Amino acid sequence: MQTLLHYFLHLVFPLGIALVFFNKEWKKAYLFLLLTMLVDLDHLLTFPVFDADRCSINFHPLHSYYAMIFYVGLLFLSKPFRILGIGLLFHMFTDLTDCLLTYQNCKDCLATSPALNVLEFISSWQSN
To answer: What CA–CA distance (Å, rounded) separates 48 from 28?
Structure first.
């Protein structure tokens, strides 16, 4: 179910964003939103390239907190850059959601994750 949710948020939900917020140019906006998937090329810098028990947030360079600050900055630029900023930030949200689901199921799996403090902080909201 987690994998299905992950790919739904990466591939289908952006179509909804494009249709709702960029309805006149939804095809172009959807293409830009899908292009933000290229941010995952930074996974090629690690071995193994895919690890189900690894949280991408703050692990890969293009998934770092510094990169996310840059993505927020894109929101203040003109339309094509703004769409890319939305897509990149939504990509980070999707990956964070995936990390949280992994963390809920196996806290030890992400015990050395660079995003552990964020995962613990967000998870603590559930207990309050």
So the answer is: 34
Cα distance between residue 28 and residue 18, in whole Å: 8
**Residues in the chain with pLDDT < 50?**
none
Tens of pLDDT, residue by residue over 15-39, are 999 999 999 999 999 999 999 999 9
Q: Helices 79-105 and 116-127 meet at what angle, rounded to 10?
A: 70
Nearest to 68 by CA among 79, 55, 83, 57: 57
Chain-centroid distance, C-alpha 25 = 23
- Residue 9: closest CA among 74, 67, 93: 93
The pLDDT assigned to 127 comes to: 60
Buried b (16+ CB within 10 A) or exposed e, 38-57: ebbebbeeeeeeeeeebbbb
Contact 29, 15 (CB under 8 A): no
* Contacts of range 96-99, beta carbons closer than 8 Å, 24 or more positions apart: 96/57, 96/122, 97/5, 97/6, 97/9, 98/2, 98/5, 98/6, 98/55, 98/56, 99/55, 99/56, 99/57
